[in-house]
Amino acid sequence: MQIGIVGLPQSGKSTLFQTITKTHLDASSMAKVETHQSIIKVPDKRLDKLTEIFNPKKKTSASIEVLDVVGLHKGDSGSTQFTSNFLGKVKTNDALIQVVRLFNNELVPHPDGSINMIRDIDSFETEFILSDLAILEKRIETVKKQIQKMQDEKLKRELLLIEKCYEILQSEKPLRDAHLHDDEVKLLSSFQLLSVKPMLIAINLDETQINETGKYLEELAKKKLSKHTKALFFFGKIEQEMSELSEKEVEIFMKEYGIKESALNGIIREAYDLLGLQSFFTCGEPECRAWTIKKGSNAQEAAGEIHTDFYKKFIRAEVVGYDDFITAGSFAKAKEVGAWRLEGKEYIVKDGDIMIIRHS
Fold first, then answer.
1. Are 229 and 294 in contact (CB under 8 A)?
2. Distance CA 11, CA 112 (A)
3. Highest mean pLDDT among 26-30, 138-142, 184-188
4. Residue 25 above 70 pLDDT?
5. pLDDT, tens digit, for every residue of 97-108?
6. Which of 111, 162, 199, 310 is most buried by its number of CB atoms within 10 A?
7. CATH code at 329?
8. Taking a C-beta distance cutoff of 8 angstroms, is the pair 35, 52 a contact?
9. How far apart, in Å, are the Cα atoms of 250 and each of 169, 226, 238, 259, 262?
10. Band of the pLDDT at 77, cuts 50, 70, 90?
């Protein structure tokens, strides 16, 4: 899974990237590369607990690739320029985090001269919609010509879909909220459209605004939030300071400021929700490992995440839920109380399932 972090200049985008990836680059290092990327481990207390119980040789967390996508700059007119180079980098991401600035700092002026949360969000949404309109307009022309040459039913279905999407975009609405079916999303994926990508709006506040998140969330809920557009708040300056502290010091720091959740944990939680993801575990003496799958995946599909041969040669899965396992205390006890069970390939894997895959 790849998540791109975007934002206007001086929004705190790079601060967020460095905080959640625990990378610390100076301004000159940041300026040398157009896209910074890092792999972050997904924090999961369940995996930590299982590691304590099994004491394996190795613990492997699920991971997410995070990109700090740079390239926005001020144009001659004074407004931010969304270049084709920048938009091209964004297209490869599975989901996006848009960092929006709400803190005031006279020493670091906002590029548009004032703080306006909705305006900044709309600036990206408008550019994404315009980009998608251009792509679909060109595709509609191509498909119509192809249909004239050959009456292909598949092309006709595609034309209906992209014309529907084109109308939605013309009404200035992103495609992520278009209630598309899975097969429609799959068809559109080849076009690398921007407005269809799930969006997490990360609002950057300072320490004076900790008690004001409620009013900002209410404004966002009225105008911007949906099933595929979520929001969270983070405190860039404070989070950056915490990223250099020990775990115990971070707990004290968060309690002092009244921060309930770190930016990393909040982003992981919301990203999993936006993308419809969940985790299952494999445990034993060699390794305890968390695996990421789509919600609704069956046992055979989960086995395929471990190894393609496990999918092809799947026989059955031995399964116990995380909570049931912790209550029982061991595989043997889980079997005694009936919490350990055999499941076939059509079994829908639940979040936190512990599985042993049997294959030929």
1. no
2. 11
3. 138-142
4. no
5. 999 999 998 888
6. 199
7. 3.10.20.30
8. no
9. 44, 32, 10, 10, 9
10. very low
Q: What would the mean pLDDT of 289-293 be, rounded to a whole number?
A: 97
Domain with 208, as residue range(s), is 2-42+61-114+198-274
Q: pTM to 2 decimals?
A: 0.88
Number of domains in the chain: 3
Given a cut of 70, whether residue 230 has pLDDT beyond it is: yes
| Contacts of 164 by beta carbon, 8 Å cutoff, 6+ apart | none
In a shared domain, residues 19 and 103: yes
Residues 7 and 88 in one domain: yes
Is residue 233's pLDDT more than 90? yes
Decide: residue 30, CB within 10 A, 0-12 exposed, 13-18 middle, 19+ buried.
middle
Percent of the chain whose pLDDT exceeds 90: 68
Is residue 66 pLDDT above 90, yes or no? Answer: yes
